[in-house]
Amino acid sequence: MDARVSAKIQSVFEEPACEHNQNKDEKARKKGCTKQLSPGAAAGGCAFDGAKIALQPIADVAHLVHGPIACEGNSWDNRNSSTSGPQLYRTGFTTDIGELDVIYGGEKRLFKSIREIIEKYDPPAVFVYQTCVTALIGDDIEAVCKRAAEKFGTPVVPVNAPGFVGPKNLGNKLGAEALLDYVIGTVEPEVTTPYDINIIGEYNLAGELWQVRPLLDALGIRVLACISGDGRYKEVAQSHRARAAMMVCSKSMINVARKMEDRYGIPFFEGSFYGIEDMSDTLRNLARLLVERGAPADLLARTEALIAVEEKRAWERIAVYRPRLEGKKVLLITGGVKSWSVVAALQEAGLEVVGTSVKKSTKEDKEKIKEIMGEDAHMIDDMTPREMFKMLREARADIMLSGGRSQFVALKAKMPWLDINQERHYAYAGYEGMVDLVREISKTLFNPMWELVRVPAPWDVPAVGEVC
């Protein structure tokens, strides 16, 4: 492994802002937050995949994968990250190296690919992603990117996160390190205001950022940069001039938030856009930090007034669904912030959460689950497909909320299922998002399809007089 990559990984493993990691002893801390992958065990995503997921939502940048075509094919467009403008991020660029490149090296091919992209598309920047094969043959993408940037006058950013170095979450952080090393702080904004903020670790899945922006606009708060959902290269480059920052609870980019605080004095807090109460707390914390950094004090009162109006409206709309949903049981198989943040809204709608997954949750997430659901909360560490199937078949849950990987367990059990993870096409952020979530649960639960699929097939029904 490249010494530079090893050093970067070690610094990520010892991230001082990660409470979970700092509670370990020195030996355990050096092993990082998650187990290293063994060959063939990257079903949950490798480091390259994590880096590309973290950075690809920057919509006006050309994202070039330096490796075999399969790496780009497997990582392309695997999240429904939406854009309000440029579409270049949805174009798959790859050097498509072959056997001869493995023998002779792929650096010349990479340089030519960068030149072709710049000449044809003229992007504000090109991000180049290292992969396992090119890292193993020793291609120095950092040197090639530096030479290309000097030659063509366009920023070319190396993202050194080959898949074999670890899991997806590590890749998220290594992608963030590339922004810190090569992008953030390289452009000065034309105008700054006392209301400028950064949102870090938000990917605008299904357009969720757009459900939050109107609330911020109503308070006069400007998103100087979202890293990286619906992002633009210039916005990220000038994000060092923000007054405050919010880190979405996934902790995928905690190193960005902490280092920007150290380098530029931008205070941050961990918040969530999921759940009505958590959305309100997020607005309060943003207002508090901005006022502490010099924004007018009336921002606090205006924030409370907006929260009162939005909460009242959201609870009234959710209450409409309560008679239909009263007593229905939900199995929540997700992770991180969603393992607890949507529970309160589900309970308010009359739903009973019979279990929530904590496989990807932190200690703090688990404590919040206990606060909301009580000490007897059923927290599922790692439920096998067989256990999920049994739970649904025995009607211990009426609907499962999960990601796409476990949908077929619910469908095989002939039980309602709703996508709540990254591949979804409905946005569930903010006050509006929670109402949408409850509405979608109601529509899914009472879809007449479920009664039809449970009816025995004609060939399984005994004929008149036939002995079973």
From TrEMBL:
Residues 46-445 form the Nitrogenase/oxidoreductase component domain. GO terms for molecular function: nitrogenase activity. InterPro entries: Nase/OxRdtase_comp1, Nase_comp1_CS, NifE, NifE-like. Keywords: Nitrogen fixation. The keyword Manganese does not apply. Pathway: Cofactor biosynthesis; Fe-Mo cofactor biosynthesis. One of its GO terms (biological process) is protein-containing complex assembly. It comes from the Bacteria. Belongs to the NifD/NifK/NifE/NifN family. This protein may play a role in the biosynthesis of the prosthetic group of nitrogenase (FeMo cofactor). This is Nitrogenase iron-molybdenum cofactor biosynthesis protein NifE. The lineage of its organism: Bacteria, Pseudomonadati, Pseudomonadota, Betaproteobacteria, Rhodocyclales.
